[in-house]
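cron nightly-structures :: item 1 of 1
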Amino acid sequence: MPWRVYWFGDADPETGRQQKYVKSFRHSREAREFQTNKQADLNRGEARDRPEDVMLGRLLDEFWEARVANLSYVSREGYKNTMEQLRECFGEARPLSRIDRRHAETFMATRKRRDGRSGDLSSWSRARHLMHCRAIFGAAVEWGYLAQNPYAPSKSRGGSPLRIQPKSRPWQHIIPDEFAWFLAEVPTARRRAAYWLMYGCGLRAGEVYNLTIDKIDLENRKVFIENREATDDVPSFTVKGDRQSHESKERTVPIPGAAIHDLTEAVKGAFKAGGFVALTPERYAAVRRNWGLCRAGRGWAGHSHRPWQNRDMMNNVLRDTKRYMRMARIDVTAPLTLHTFR
C-alpha cells in the first residue's frame, strides 16, 4: 500500500474552499522526506498550490522570445536544434508536469547524430543539449511553471545521462620564439599585423578581420573593439556575446610595441580596402558583393541564405595559417585553429 502525503492549497477568495493535494510514495522514508521538505517550503511562504500546467510548446515559444531571440546566430541555431528535438520527443502538447527526471534522462540518453555521419554523438554535443535543456526548464521554474528542474545536475553516483563531462582536447601552445619563426614565413605586413592582433592583443579572428583604421590609435598603442552598424556597403559587426561577460564587452586593448611596424604598414594599405586593416582590396570587393547578396535574401559563396556572421569577412585564413606553420617547421601536436593565437 503506497504512502501518501496530503496538503491543502490556498483558500479560493470567492468560495473559501481549499484544493486538497496528494502525492504517493512507495516507501515511508521517501514520504517523510517529502513531508519535511514540503513543510519547510510552506513555512518559507512558497505557494501552496501546484504550478499552472503549462504545455511544452508554450514554454519553448516563451523561452525563445525572452532569452534566445537576441543571442548570436550560432547560439540561436544551437537552441533551435535542441528545441526541435524536445518537440519531437515529447510533443508540443505535453504538460510540463509530465516531464520528470526519468523523461529527462531518457531524452539525453537517446540523442543521436543528425549530420549523416557514422559514430556516436560527441560528448560536447551532448553537453550542449544538456546546457540548453537546463536553461529552458530552469526558466520554467523561475516563471512558476514547475516546482523543480528535471534536468538539474544529478546527485547520483551512477551513470546518469545528466552527468556529462565534455572530453577535453589537447591545445597547441605557441611560444614567442615559435611565433617569431612563424611571422618570418608570412609574406605581407597586412597578414603579419592580423596575427599580431590575435597573438599580441588577444583579439578574436572575427574581431581582427572587422577592424578598421579608425579603431586603431598607433600613437598611444591602443585598439578599440566596438560594435559597428551595417550600411549598404559593409555588414555590421557585433562583439561576441556582448553584455554577457567582461571579456565579451566592447573594450580597449593595448598594442605591444613589437607589433607597431607591421600594423603601421597594414594601416597604410587599408585605404584601398575600405579602411579594413586585415582585408586585401580583392577580399573587400568580395565582402561587399556577398553582403549585397545577403541583404537581398540570397545565398553567397556557396552558402544558403543565413544572417551575416563576423567570420564571413575571412576567406581561407586557416588554410594559409597551416601552410605558414609547415614552412616555419613548427611541430603541431594538437588541433590548430585561429583561436590558438589568443
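cron nightly-structures :: done
The CA atoms of residues 270 and 277 lie 5 Å apart.
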